[in-house]
Each structure stands twice: as structure tokens, then as C-alpha cells.
Amino acid sequence: MASGLCSTDPVAAEAVEFDDQAVLVRAAAPVLDGVVAEIDGCPFAVVLSDSNGTIVDRRVGDARLVAGLDDVGGIPGARHTESVTGTNSAGLALRLGRRVSVIGDEHFLECFRDFACYGHPVRHPVTRQVEGVINLCCPADVASPAVAMFLARVAADIESRLLDTPATEQRMLAAYQVAAFGSPVRPVMVMNDRLMLLNMAAAGLLNPADADAVLALASGDGEPRERLLRLIDGRTLKVFARALSNADATLVEFKSGGSAPTLPEASIAGRWPDVEMARCRERRLPVLVAGEPGTGRTSALRKLAAGLPISIVDAAVLDEASWSAGLERAVAAGAGLLAMESIELLTERQILKLTGLLDEGRHWIACSSTPVAELTGLHRVLAARCVGRIELAPVRARERELPSLLRARLAALGMADRVKFAAGALQLLASHPWLGNFHELHGLVDFVLSRRSAGEIMVEDLPERYRSSPSKRRLTAMEKAEYDAIMTALRICDGNRVRAAQRLGISRSTLHRRIRSFGIQPAS
Known about the structure:
Elements: E1 2-3, E2 14-15, E3 17-18, H1 23-39, E4 45-50, E5 55-60, H2 64-71, E6 78-79, H3 82-85, H4 89-96, E7 100-103, E8 115-123, E9 130-139, H5 146-161, H6 167-180, E10 188-191, E11 196-198, H7 200-203, H8 211-215, E12 225-230, E13 236-244, E14 249-259, H9 274-283, E15 287-290, H10 297-305, E16 310-314, H11 320-333, E17 337-341, H12 348-360, E18 364-369, H13 377-384, E19 388-391, H14 402-412, E20 419-421, H15 423-430, H16 437-449, E21 455-457, H17 464-467, H18 477-492, H19 497-504, H20 508-518
Parallel strand pairs: 15-18, 15-19, 16-17, 17-18, 20-21
Antiparallel strand pairs: 1-3, 2-6, 4-5, 4-9, 7-8, 8-9, 10-11, 10-14, 12-13, 13-14
Helix pairs in contact: 1-5, 5-18, 18-19, 19-20
């Protein structure tokens, strides 16, 4: 047992005893170990509270925050419920059961008003009960909506660890933690034929099609080896691989010394190598197609089927009874690809049915969903069952490809030889947020063709809302994360800024200010 006391302000928090070996604490510890590397040197503190509002763990990125947190009782063993300390991120998130922010003067107690605090509930993946709250605290003058996405990922990682983990996977995780959590962060992965653990540094290096090549680096005799690995996109990386005999897995560390890829002129974002699709088709491996609505998820599923029969059951257009009936018909048909669309909308009962089919292994199943980072709980667990993964980038992330994407739509309409977009129009369209992705892009092309059927499409041919997009400046890493968080919230909330602000855990005025700063234009 452990206990904590507020150092200077007995009103700020109630000191209680807590179990430092509780399931939540043990599940969160490896995740928080990883967070330390991400916030190192930043004025952030990540604080874990249990379902009673008691702080059970704390990690600090900048040692200068420690004294300030101690002064307001931000220490393990301190209870921060609304009845004890008034409005605060942990107590408010527990009461509302959703992500919140409490910034500066929004705090009830004066001693908290120098801080911006964000809270995100941690729910059990099966029971959906709130097990605790993960909080991020920082000085009020560095508050940012980007924190919301960061906390959502941390909460999801903790939730996934609340499930029982087989001993083999525990040993894999232990090896991964030892190798990955250093400073600076190194690209590291641990994998076997069922599971892959990798940090963001490694994820940025690899395509799904590279997994088999990396796994083959572990020799049968378990001897470690270093070699150059050629990836599917033409790059070569220097890697050091060794077998983990106690976990029947391979530890791979990526080192400097490889060659840069030879990239085509257009970005390859949102594509998947045909050879990888063929491998999944041949072996009937389950596949997940993830991306925002309008990024071509259904088209990707049809391309995956490659002419084979495909049965599509879409949770976005069917109620639960109709969905179950559609699933039964598709299973009875038996041939080709069973495509389960919009799995993020499935109920727990529907997920159990689909999981049962995956366990049977008699059907070739592919799923589609919103971006994986937005999935939580059982939906995230279901997505993890899919060996193959096609990540479709939103149109706003494919700026370099925009001219070719527009030409492709013109070609599909038989107009590519008669019409083209002028440079000025392309420049404006490149700075547009494209909340509707390809649905919106295709609608724009159809509209401008109704006004001009030959020659160059000029700025004045565009609808009014596409003409005023300001030129983009290059964003910092934090600004890019904040921009993506705002765009995701606006998309999920159908452009409703009130609901988007609530989802981000910020005030409407803050959201409006950041939207103006980024030059984001309304969707309609």
C-alpha cells in the first residue's frame, strides 16, 4: 500500500491510501513508461487517477513541474474528486464519463489556475466501466487541442492492457520495453506470426508488406545477425535481429546506414502494394481497411477481392437485426470475400458474432473502419485481429498528389483531354481541408464541369468557399498534430463546431480562434 499527502495546501486534495499493485496501475505502468520518452523535456505531466479520483501514478517530462504539482497535491495518494477540490479534469471526467479540459480560471481552486489540465476516461474493454482517468497537466499558456489525440491513444493503450495477456505475449512486451524505451527513441519492433509490437519510430519506416521479410531475419539457430534489408518501396535499412527463444519471437532494431527510397513523383500515401493484397487473398488472411469516410474504403475492399465474389454488410446503413440477417446470408453464400463495413458502429453483440466467424477460420473476412487511432475498446481489439492492414490517407494529406487525383476524376468522366485545372486553382485547392475527401473532390469536379467544358478551370470557376483558402505555411510538429486533431473532430461532428469543441475538450472560442489561425474553411 502507498499513501500521499498534499505538501502545502490541505484543502487542495484529500490524502488516502491506495493499492499500488492494483490491476489499473499494473496495466498502465508499461504505457506510462513509454509516455516518458515522448514527453521528455516538455512541460507536461501525465497523471493516472483511479475510479475514486485518487492519483495512483505520475510521470513528468520536465523536472521543473514537480514542485508546482507537489504544491497543489498532484501526487500519488491525493484524491481529486469534485466534492473535494471542485472543478478539475480527473473529477469532471469521472462524473461525465468523457474527455474534458479544465484550463486556467476554469479550475475551482486558485492554486490550480496556473495549469491547463486534460482528462480522458479509461474504460475496461469488456465491461465498459470507467476504471480511471488519464490526465495531462501543463502550464496554462501552452494549452493545446492536440493533447486530446495524445490522451485518447494513451487511454486506448491502457485499456487494451486491462485484458488478460498470455505469458508468451508478456515476455514479448517485456523485451520490447527494454529495447524501445530509451533516449533518444530508437526504431524497435518485436514480432512473431501472431503479434507485432513496434514504436512510432519503427512504424514510420515500414509498410505492412515488409513484415514477412523482417520476420525471416531470425535464423533457425537463434544467432543474432545484422544485415541490409530491402523493403517493398525500394529502400534498404540496416537491421539487427535476434530470436527470443523464451517467447518464440524476433527482436529487431533498425539502425542508420540504409539508403533512401526512390519515390515516384506522387506520394504513395493511402496505397497498398498489389503483392501484399495478393498474399492476403491467396492465404485468405483477415484484412482491415481503415480511413476517414470518403477515402475509398469500399473501393479498396473491391480491389482486394480482385474479381472474386464479394458480400458487403455495412453497419452504417443497416440496423442490428438487418445486419445480422445480412451476415447470415453472406455466410451461407460461402464464396469469395465477406466484407464487413464500418465496424466502429458495431455493438458488443455484433462484435462477438464477427469474432466467432474469425475464430472459425472458414471464411475470408475483411473489415473497414474509421482510422485505427479513433477505435477504442472492443472495436480496437477486433481491428487487431486483422493481419493485413490498408491505411487510407485523407485527401488533405495527399497534397502532392492532388493534381493527379483531379486528373483521374476528369479522366473517369471522359474530360481529361478537354479540361485541366489552372495553376492558381490548384494552389487554392491544395490548401483546402477536404472534410469530405473523395466524395467532396468528385463533387467539386462535377460542379466545375457544369460551368466549363473546355480549356482551363480558373479560380473564378470554383465555388466561393474554395476561392478564399489562404496559402498554407509550413506547420511545426505540434501545430500539425493540433491541425489534424481539429480536422478529425470537425469530420466526426459533421462540421458542427460546438460539438467539435466538446469532443476536443476546449472552449468554443478557443476552437474558433485556432480555426481562424489555420485558415480552415467551413465544409458548406
